[in-house]
């Protein structure tokens, strides 16, 4: 049971996000978090398929999933803070910012996983 909880602990961000953001931003935020969670799993599978779950350098003892959780958790927290203070942002601007943060998070987490 603990292993199952650990594998899906990042889903706890979803209810937090739905409470933290404003009404017009909830769908975009939920999609961002769900897609990011799926992307994390794809990145971890990629790292394991090339036998680099500890990274290429071995500087950290954490595996790729733990590193990804750390990066995505920090970015989710910062994203929710920014979304909370962006209540009067137009929908398309919020979507564009969300997409940019998603791409940034993907690149940053991949970099951290590879190290």
Topology (SSEs and partners):
Layout: H1 2-7, H2 13-20, H3 26-49, H4 64-84, H5 91-114
Description:
With 115 residues, this protein is mainly α. The protein has one domain (2-114). The protein is built from five helices and no strands. The protein has helices at 2-7, 13-20, 26-49, 64-84, 91-114. Helix 2 (13-20) packs antiparallel against helix 3, helix 3 (26-49) packs antiparallel against helix 4 (64-84) and helix 4 runs antiparallel to helix 5.
| Major β-sheet profile | none
Topology, number of strands:
0
User: In terms of per-residue confidence, which ranges show pLDDT below 50 for 5 or more consecutive residues?
Assistant: none
Average predicted local confidence, pLDDT: 93
Judged by helices, strands and strand pairing, the structural class is mainly alpha
Count of the domains: 1
In short:
With 115 residues, the chain is an all-alpha fold.
Observed structural traits:
115 residues, mainly alpha
């Amino acid at each position: 049971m603990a292993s199952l909880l650990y594998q899906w602990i990042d889903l706890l961000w979803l209810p937090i996000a739905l409470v933290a953001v404003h009404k017009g931003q909830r769908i975009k935020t939920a999609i961002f978090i769900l897609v990011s969670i799926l992307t994390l799993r794809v990145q971890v599978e990629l790292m394991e398929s090339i036998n680099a779950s500890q990274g290429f350098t071995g500087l950290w003892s954490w595996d790729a999933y733990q590193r990804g959780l750390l990066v995505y958790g920090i970015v989710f927290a910062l994203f929710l803070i920014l979304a909370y203070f962006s209540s009067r942002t137009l929908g398309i601007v919020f979507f564009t910012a969300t997409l940019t943060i998603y791409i940034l998070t993907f690149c940053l987490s991949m970099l951290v996983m590879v190290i």
